[in-house]
Amino acid sequence: MARLTTEERNELPDSDFVYPKERRYPIQDIEQARIALRMVKAYGTDSEIKKVTAAVFERYPSLKDEEMERRREAEEE
């Protein structure tokens, strides 16, 4: 898991966060986007889940495809 140090996180531009004012849910690369999805699904509110998911899928459309594939596989089980 790609953990950001405080220094690395502080150096990110606001545009790399789903919530730029609060600097929450960094999605500057695809690995951090995956982490953001996992974290928001575990700890976020319904509205946060929707916002983070939409932001991640907009920036990384391939993750939307991965998510759809995971859901299909889960339904088949």
Description:
The mean pLDDT is 93. With 77 residues, the protein is mainly α. It has four helices and two strands; from the N terminus they run H-E-E-H-H-H. A hairpin with a 4-residue loop joins strand 1 and strand 2 (24-26). 14% of the residues are buried. A two-stranded antiparallel sheet has the order 1-2. The longest helix has 16 residues, at 61-76. The chain is 65% helix and 8% strand. It has one domain (6-76).
Briefly summarize what is shown.
This protein has four helices and two strands.
Outline the fold blueprint.
Layout: H1 6-11, E1 17-19, E2 24-26, H2 30-43, H3 46-59, H4 61-76
Antiparallel strand pairs: 1-2
Helix pairs in contact: 2-3, 3-4
Number of helices: 4
Looking at the chains present, what oligomeric state does this protein adopt? single chain
Helix-strand sequence: HEEHHH
How many separate structural domains?
Answer: 1
Secondary structure: number of strands? 2
Mean pLDDT: 93
How much is the radius of gyration in Å?
13 Å
Strand content: 5-15%
Helix content: 55-70%
